[in-house]
Amino acid sequence: MAYLLLAAVLIVVGVSVVLLRNRRPTSMNSSIEEFEKGLRAIAPEPEPGEPRPTRAPRAPGPPGGGPDTPRRDPRPGPS
Q: Phi and psi dihedrals of 75, rounded to 5?
């Protein structure tokens, strides 16, 4: 009976270790990196002798400006 209990404990520990080591990261940066990796995989190859394009640096601050940036009305109107 003790052998069965020992085997069950070892199986539970082994399965737990495998699940913890192979889990997917859940941070926002990891999902962005995974998406960019997919984009690089489907991107066309550059011509021989042509440099590989690099990623443009991100602009600081929130997209679209800050709270003091005036907003434009997207609806067409009289000029």
A: -80, 140
Q: In the 8-state DSSP scheme, what is residue 70? A: P
Whether this prediction's pTM lies above 0.70 is answered by no
User: Which residue is listed with tokens 């990796």?
Assistant: 37
Q: Contact 41/34 with Cβ under 8 angstroms? A: no
- pLDDT tens digits, residue range 41-59? 998 877 777 776 676 666 6
What span, in angstroms and rounded, lies between the C-alpha atoms of 37 and 41?
Answer: 6
What does 1-65 look like in DSSP terms, one character per residue? -HHHHHHHHHHHHHHHHHHHHTPPP-SHHHHHHHHHHHHHHHSPPPPTTSPPP-PPPPPSS-TT-
